[in-house]
Write a structure and sequence with these properties.
The structure holds two protein chains of two kinds.
Chain A lengths: L1 E10 L2 E11 L4 E6 L5 H9 L6 E6 L2 E2 L5 H8 L2 E4 L11 H12 L4 H14 L15 H13 L5 E5 L7 H18 L2 E5 L3 H7 L2 E6 L2 E6 L1 H4 L5 H7 L3 H11 L1
Parallel strand pairs in A: 3-8, 3-9, 6-7, 7-8
Antiparallel strand pairs in A: 1-2, 1-4, 4-5, 9-10
Helix pairs in contact in A: 3-4, 3-5, 4-5, 5-6, 6-7
Chain B lengths: L1 H19 L6 H16 L3 H22 L9 H40 L2 H7 L4 H38 L5 H9 L4 H27 L5 H31 L1
Helix pairs in contact in B: 1-6, 2-6, 3-4, 3-6, 4-6, 4-7, 4-8, 4-9, 6-7, 6-8, 8-9
The chains are: A alpha/beta, B mainly alpha.
């Protein structure tokens, strides 16, 4: 479980996050949504410790990471898996080596067991057949799946995904969403996904936070979001024709 | 303003080196990466070092023969001067300037691309000291390979000079050999190696620094590569002056 409390973050004169508080439960897919520039990525970077907030607390299962020193932060990060917007697989390594990398660095398993564990993770994301390929031989969706396999290799307690569907077609996006959702339930991970894909919101949004101008404007789940009376959220949601039509059909 | 920026940049470089020069997380992974870098930075540089050194050795020999030889000069002067130039300056300083272009730009663009494609962020998120993981194997690899490159360069340059004597007929190989062996001082070879080790550190650390602090896209990676080569070259020349003064006194 991750709790953030009264987070403030400024860049020079601009306040990017203004008093944001939320609770992210285990085994749930928590989504952070909002327009571009709303502060989603900054919030995610604060939560994972890549940025330090000016004020506020970020508590991982009772541990406030804002007061952590470098060494404590390094140790915590071994409990974290992260899926980046562009997958961020290491170019110089094969898919299998990418997934084995966290095991090579942080586990004391013998080589054969590390290979076995990496292959298990690749199999979990249906990528075992591509284990010897290099990242540039993979499609965008396959890269994301390989990155998910790398993220879960050490059995993380926390999984963060920054725009996991960016640049993917709707079908592949759906597969990635399902994978993230299934893995979250299967391993009871605290998952936080930063997205503005409405399919993800409707599909896997167990808990949704809507950020507007750096503030938490709305909080709920996928069933509640279509019936909200929050005007800013409605403007954001129904800027898409598809979602508007779905809502109209639902009302009929 | 330029002075303040320079001090700030130097401070950032020192802070980065503090992270780089720490104990590796896993020695097994470190040695594997170091071997890979020894091949990439050292072994892959052998052809260019041999090629350039051979021709520069030949050109030095021709220039000296044409410009300084006179009836008043002993015949072995050409060979002697060629050897001293190759050992004292060309095979350490000039060869490292060439490597700054080849290896330095390669390192900056590799690390810079990793930065802009979030691969370095991925390392940090995993709890890996990315500076140590990426940069230390490069520094140790080039430092361990550079003495070999210096020796290869001296040998290739000498072979180039010898080839001129043998195949052009502008001087006899015997006169050249006498010059090449005249008052040989082993310390000069050590000077060349010591200087090149310092230059290897400059090339790898400065290029890595420029790559590591890239922000933006491919354009910035290109600019960083150019800046890295310029800075490395200037620093090598400055270090050459200081080290020559210290070592040759």
């Amino acid at each position: 479980m991750i709790e953030i409390s009264s987070i403030y973050k400024r860049f020079e004169e601009q306040t990017v996050l203004n008093n944001v508080s939320a609770l992210f439960d285990d085994g749930k897919t928590n989504l952070i949504i909002g327009k571009s520039g709303a502060g989603k990525t900054v919030l995610l970077k604060c939560i994972v410790g890549l940025l330090t907030p000016e004020k506020g607390k970020i508590i991982y299962d009772g541990r406030d990471i804002v007061s952590f020193n470098k060494k404590e932060m390094m140790l915590l990060r071994r409990e974290i898996g992260m899926l980046f917007q562009n997958a961020a697989l290491f170019d110089s390594m094969s898919v299998l080596e990418n997934v084995m990398f966290p095991l090579d660095m942080f586990s004391d398993m013998p080589y054969k067991e590390r290979v076995k564990r990496a292959q298990f993770c690749l199999d979990r994301v249906s990528m075992l057949e591509a284990q010897d390929k290099s990242p540039d031989e993979l499609s965008g969706g396959m890269q994301k799946r390989a990155a998910i396999a790398r993220a879960i290799a050490l059995g993380p307690k926390y999984l963060f995904c920054d725009e996991p569907n960016s640049g993917l077609d709707p079908q592949t996006s759906l597969k990635i969403d399902e994978l993230i959702h299934d893995i979250t339930k299967e391993y009871n991970i605290t998952t936080i996904v930063n997205t503005h894909d409405m399919n993800s919101v409707m599909g896997i949004g167990d808990h949704i936070l809507f950020l507007a101008d750096g503030r938490l404007s709305w909080e709920g789940n996928k069933d509640e979001i279509l019936h909200t009376d929050n005007e800013t959220l409605n403007n954001f949601l129904f800027s898409s024709d598809l979602v508007r039509k779905v809502k109209e059909m639902g009302n009929k | 303003m330029i002075l303040v920026d320079s001090i700030k940049t130097f401070g950032e470089y020192i802070l980065l080196m503090k992270r780089v020069l720490s104990q590796p997380e896993r020695w097994r992974v470190f040695f594997r990466r170091m071997l890979h870098e020894m091949y990439q930075l050292g072994v892959n540089s052998i052809p260019i070092v041999l090629l350039i050194s051979f021709f520069i050795g030949a050109v030095i020999c021709i220039q000296l023969k044409l410009n300084i030889e006179s009836p008043w000069m002993p015949k072995m002067v050409v060979g002697y001067s060629t050897r001293e130039i190759l050992i004292l300056e060309f095979s350490s300083s000039i060869m490292c300037l060439i490597l700054a272009g080849k290896v330095g730009s390669n390192i900056t663009s590799e690390i810079g691309t990793m930065r802009v494609t979030q691969q370095i962020d991925a390392l940090e998120i995993m709890g890996v000291n990315s500076a140590n993981f990426l940069i230390l194997p490069k520094i140790t690899a080039l430092i361990s390979m550079i003495p070999m490159l210096v020796i290869f360069s001296i040998a290739a340059g000498t072979a180039g000079a010898f080839a001129i004597g043998k195949f052009t007929g502008i001087m006899t190989p015997e006169d050249l050999m006498v010059g090449l062996q005249y008052e040989f001082q082993q310390w000069y070879i050590w000077c060349s190696i010591i200087k090149s080790v310092a230059f290897a550190f400059i090339i790898t650390s400065v290029s890595s620094f420029y790559g590591y602090r890239v922000s933006g896209g491919s354009l910035e990676v290109g600019k960083a590569s150019t800046n890295a080569v310029v800075s490395c070259s200037a620093l090598i020349l400055f270090a050459d002056m200081v080290l020559t003064q210290l070592l040759m006194q």
